[in-house]
Amino acid sequence: MAITIKDVAKAANVAPSTVSRVISDSRHISEKTKKKVRQVMNELGYHTNLNARGLVQQSTKTLGVVLKYSESDAWKLGNLFVSEVLQGISAHCQQHGYSIMITTGSTEEEIYKDVGRMVQGKQVDGIIVLYAKKNDKVVPFLLEKAIPFSVVGKPMERMNEIMFVDNDNMQAAKDATEFLIHRNHSRIGFIGDNPTFQVIQDRVEGYYKALEEHGIRRDASYVKFVHTPEEEGAVVEEFLIMEAKPTALVISTPLQGVGVLKALHKRGVHVPDEISLVVFNKTLITEMSIPVLTSIDTEAFQLGYEASRGVVELINNPDTFKRSVIIPAKIEPRESHRKLTKDNSSVINVTME
Amino acid sequence: MAITIKDVAKAANVAPSTVSRVISDSRHISEKTKKKVRQVMNELGYHTNLNARGLVQQSTKTLGVVLKYSESDAWKLGNLFVSEVLQGISAHCQQHGYSIMITTGSTEEEIYKDVGRMVQGKQVDGIIVLYAKKNDKVVPFLLEKAIPFSVVGKPMERMNEIMFVDNDNMQAAKDATEFLIHRNHSRIGFIGDNPTFQVIQDRVEGYYKALEEHGIRRDASYVKFVHTPEEEGAVVEEFLIMEAKPTALVISTPLQGVGVLKALHKRGVHVPDEISLVVFNKTLITEMSIPVLTSIDTEAFQLGYEASRGVVELINNPDTFKRSVIIPAKIEPRESHRKLTKDNSSVINVTME
DNA sequence: CAAAATAAAGCAAACGTTTGCATGAAATTT
DNA sequence: AAATTTCATGCAAACGTTTGCTTTATTTTG
C-alpha cells in the first residue's frame, strides 16, 4: 500500500489535517512545520491520492472530451482536425492543471454511455463536445444535467444556452469565394459533403452571398454535393462537360480537395492553370499535396483552446455568461489557384501572387 | 447533491450494502430484492460515484496513455500514426470497460509530471507509452514503481522486463527491399530520418540484409539520412547526379515520401516510370498522394489494440509473462512502383501488377 | 498584569462506496 | 423436532482525503 497522509502525519509528529494544510499551503501553518512536513513527504515519497481528494472536494480537475462519432472515412478526415483541436485543449488543460479523459466509444450509443459514466460517475468536472450534429443526445443530456460544457462547432438548437466555439463558416466561404472573384474568376463552383450539416449550409450561403455582392448570378448547377467517398470523379465530370465550365472551385474538405485533384489529374486538367481550387481546413493533407492546396485555415488548435477555456470558466463560475467564440478563418494562399486576366481568357502563363 | 447509495437504500428500505450488492449483481441477494432496488435506482436516477468506488477498490478502470513528446513536425507526422494507435487502444478499452486518460504535456518534463500524477495519484490502473525513445525517464519510473504498463515501439533497454508491441522493422525493411528486388530493381536507395533512432537502424539493417541475400553489394552512398524537414530536395539531388542512380527508393516516413515525391516532381522525374518509391507507414498521406504511394502498413490500430490488451492483462495478473508482441507489417502495393524488365533497361512502358 | 486577540495545530465528521463479519430466518438434514 | 446448513440481509469499518470547529499556546492590548 502506498504512503498516505497519515503516514506522513505520524512520521512528522503532526495531525493529518496539518499535513493536508501543508499540501494546500495554507497560511494557518507555520513555516517551520511546513518545512518539516515537506521534508518528511519527500523522504517517504508521498503523493496525494486524487481519488480521495476528488471524493471530498467533489471535483477531479479533469475534463471529458467527447470525440466525434466515427462513421467511415469522415472519421479519418476528422482525425487530423480532431487531433489538432485536441492539442489546443491539451495546451489549455496543461496550463490550468486539468487532466483529460476521452471517450472510447465508436458508436453513437457507446459514446453516449461514456458521457454518462464520466458525468454521473463524477469522473470529470466538465465536458467538451467535438462537435455538434443533429439528433444528438449528448448535448441535451448535458443541458438537462446542468453540467459545465462547451461545444466545438455550432449547436443545432438552444444556441444561447450553450457555450460554443466555431468559425464563422458563412463568412469564411464568402471570403474564399471573394478571394477567387478578386482574381477575376466568375464561374465558380462549390463542392460540399452532406448538405444536411449546418456547416455546409452556412458555407453554401456564404458562397452565394459573395457571388451576389459581386453581381454574379447564383446558379444551382454550380453547386454539387458529394455524398459517398470517391464520388468526386463523377462530380468533376459533371463540371467539365458543362458549356460554361467553372474556372475555380470552393471545396469543403481536404479529402474532397485531394479527390478532386486526382479526378482532374486523371482527366489531364491542370491545376491551377486550367482550374483553381480553394479548400476548407488547412491540414497536413492540403499542405502535402501537389500542388499545395490553397486553403482556409480554420485554426483547429485555437478552437480547442478556447473550448477548454470556456468549460473551465464555467466550472469555476457556473453563472458565467454562455458566450460563443467565433474564431476567424484565414485564407492560406498556396499553389492551387491562379489569377485570371480581366477578360477571363485562359492564359496559360501562370500569374500567382 | 446527487443521489447516493444511501438514498436508494432508504427509499428501497434496505441497507446500503444491499444496494451495493445489487449493483454488482451479487448472488447473495434475492431476485425479489434486486428487482425492487433496481426499480428504485431507476426512479431516483442513481449512478455510482466512481471516485468513491475507486477509493475503496484501489482501482479506477482507467488507462493512462502517454503521448509522444511533440517536437516540431515529427509530431504532425506522428499525429496520423498516433491517432490510429489511439483508436486501437480505444477499441480495446471500450470492450473491457476501461476509460482513457491522456497526457496533456507538450514538453518532456510536463509529460513526466503527468505520468507521475496519473500513477501516484491513483488515477489510472496502468499506462501505455507511445513510444520508446532513449534517455526516456518515463519507462524507468514505471519500472521502479512496478506499475503495469506496455510500450508501443521497442524499448531501448531492459527489454525482457517490459511488455511491448512493435513491428519487426528489420523484417519489414527487408520485405520492402525484396519487393523491389523481385521487380528487378538492383540499384535501390534508402532514405531515413534520424539514424540514432533504433527503428531506423533496424530498417537500414533489413534493407542491407535483403540486398546481400540477393547478391547485391551494399553501398553506403545509397543510404541517406534527412535530418531537417524539407531537406528531401537535397537528398534527391544527390541521388539524381549519381552515375548509377537508383531506380528505386525505400523511404522511412510518409512525410519524407511526399517530400521526395515533390522533389522528384519539381525536377521532372516521373514516378514510377523513372523511379519507384516504397514508403513506411500506410497513412492517409500515402493514400492521398498522386500517385498513391506503395507503402508498408505497420498496422497502427493493431499496435494500439495489443498494447492495451497487454496492460489490462498485466493489471489483472501482475505476474503475467511480459511478452512482446510483434505485429507483422504488410506491403500495400499501390502506384508508386513499377517492375523493371530483366535487363534493367528503362522501359517506359509501365508494367504494374 | 489580566483580558482579549491572534496564531498554530488537532479532532472528528464527512465524501460515497465496498466488503468481512454477524445476524436472523428459512430450508435441509439427522 | 432438534441440529445443521444455507440463504438473505444488515452492521460497521475501511479507503485517503478535506475542512469546520475546537483547543491550546502565544502575542498583543488596555
From TrEMBL, chains A, B:
Matches recorded under PROSITE patterns: HTH_LACI_2
Residue span(s) of domain HTH lacI-type: 3-57
Record keywords: DNA-binding, Transcription, Transcription regulation
MF annotations from Gene Ontology: DNA-binding transcription factor activity; transcription cis-regulatory region binding
Keyword Transcription regulation part of the UniProt annotation: yes
Statement: the UniProt record of this protein carries the keyword Transcription: yes
Top-level taxon: Bacteria
SUPFAM superfamilies from the UniProt entry: lambda repressor-like DNA-binding domains, Periplasmic binding protein-like I
InterPro entries the record matches: HTH_LacI, LacI/GalR-like_sensor, Lambda_DNA-bd_dom_sf, Peripla_BP_I
PANTHER family per UniProt: HTH-TYPE TRANSCRIPTIONAL REGULATOR GALS, LACI-RELATED TRANSCRIPTIONAL REPRESSOR
Name of the protein in question: LacI family transcriptional regulator
